[in-house]
Amino acid sequence: MSDLRELYQTTILDHNRQPRNFRVPAAANRSATGHNPLCGDRVSVHVELEDGVVKDVGFQGNGCAISTASASLMTQAVKGKPVADVRRLFDAFHALVTSDPRREIDPDGVGKLAVFAGVREYPVRVKCATLAWHTLRAALDGGGATVKTE
Amino acid sequence: MKATFDVARLREEFPVLRRSQRGKPLVYLDSAATAQKPRAVIDAVSDFYANHYASIHRGVYELSETATQMFEDAREKLRTFLGAREAREIVFVKNATEAINLVARTFGRQNVGPGDEVLLTAMEHHADIVPWQMLCEERGARLRVTPIHDSGELDLEAFETLLSDRTRIVGVAHVSNVLGTINPVRELVALAHERGVPVLVDGAQAAPRIPLDVRALGCDFYAVSGHKLYGPNGIGALYARAELLETMPPFLGGGSMIESVSFEKTTYAGIPARFEAGSPNSEGAVGLAAALDWLFGLGMTNVARHEAELLAWATELLDAIPGVRIYGRAAAKTGVLSFTLDGVHPHDVGTVLDGEGIAIRAGHHCAQPLMERYGVPAMARVSLGVYNDHADLERLAHAVRKTAEMFR
To answer: A145 in contact with B at a CB cutoff of 8 Å?
Structure first.
């Protein structure tokens, strides 16, 4: 069970139970939908973008604990940040969850999101962890199209 | 009821069951996706390559004659296994999916026209939905769907009503890959035949679990996958009544399926060769023959009894866990048990079980319309094989309880 605790850290279980920013911000002006065809999970991300800054952000949908917690923690991590910083954080997070599990992680780059390091041991779950992030990026790109993880 | 074969001894024949998963002894409960292979099958494939391999149906030398004989013996074994009248009613294909596509592309194109209908059921696998949907789009025909009751049983009255004078073919799963329901194929066939409508049965899940007799069922087409039958990947079979098969145009064109070829005109071979273009998966056929021999040794009646007994036990164990919801309570059910755990996504159930060494399926099971029918995005599915025993199910129940605690 030790490995599983590594994956399902207390923070992840908490954000799964009580997702933060689980809403559509009233002034949202960017949004996108993400779909993981493997499990049927859907998530929508809504952003209020003002002068190149994520002023507010929320998400909707339902999925597994990893995808729900990832979306929840993502909204907290990107709120108030300039788009350029959000993109850098996306890259750092993506690198984290797809890195070699034997490698030490650098918590400075991703802050609280380091709780997702356990996902590295479960390649099939990487898509769960990154679905909300891909969707956020699509929203920022202004696509409005559905993002697929496959 | 007691299993009439020795499961402990039988497990020894499956090398993979000796390995571990995430550091725990493997409990394999995903046989509806694909079954593990007994030593007899692994050895048969290896022996074929080591000692008997050559081009089949072509060589003028002894080695090729032997390989051809082994390939045709496999067809004969399938005939016996399915209860067909003649070996030429068995067409080798990749899998059940290809078998259904073959029928849709040949018989379907020939017989389904604008305004006609193809009648399916709400519990079909995507393999028995999409080929028909493609056909309907091409031909301007309509897909009709027989609804099911909450229990996972077909609504037979609705089926009768939906059978219209425009119905050109019926497609039905013998056993549902999600609900485990054993559909009353014999009755469905009788109803369809009264109106002159042929019936295709998707037997991918039934073939490894219950004794089969296509003549007793009366169906016109029956599709099976070798890999679910403890045989190799990439080999399967389509049974089709000879009278129908004779009237059907070819599926794929190429070598083996012709009588004579000129640039002006090609005449086609008789059945079943007409439907087997190109060099076939001969090692797959030989491996599948070994799997069938092995199943004959166990006896399909015993296999069915074993799975029924385990299913009843698994149902009792999971029903006792608070928050577990089981989908499919058909009176006639086998081998498959799908469930959800309140407040926990099926993928998380699958991952926690993985950590306990237990392999199950989590997702939509290639039956998205059925997920919609039950109002869930996904389910966790336990499916049984001949090698499963009570200890596997005890470990399953323990791990599901652990999952519930973890996410509480």
So the answer is: no
B84 three-state secondary structure:
coil
Count of domains for chain A: 1
Token code pair at residue B193: 């035949």
Q: State the catalytic residues of B.
A: 366
Task: For chain B, give every domain's residue range.
Answer: 7-30+299-407, 43-297
Q: What is the mean pLDDT of chain B?
A: 96
Residue A52, judged by CB atoms within 10 A of its CB (0-12, 13-18, 19+), counts as exposed
- List, as ranges, residues 32-51 from A with C-beta within 8 Å of B: 38-42
* CATH 2.60.120.10 at B43-297, yes or no: no
pLDDT tens for chain A, 150 residues long, are: 457 888 999 999 999 999 999 999 999 999 999 988 777 788 999 999 999 999 999 999 989 999 999 999 999 999 999 999 999 999 999 999 998 888 877 767 888 999 999 999 888 899 999 999 999 999 999 855 567 665
Q: Give the closest of A42, A62, A65 to B348, CB-based.
A: A65
Domain formed by B7-30+299-407, architecture? Alpha-Beta Complex (3.90)
Contact at CB, A13 and B406, closer than 8 angstroms: yes
ipTM of the complex: 0.89
Domain that holds residue A78: 2-148
Distance from CA of A18 to the nearest CA of B (A): 12
CA dist., res. B74 & res. B271, Å (int): 16
Provide the number of CB pairs (under 8 Å) joining chain A to chain B: 60
Six-digit token string for A35: 């779909």
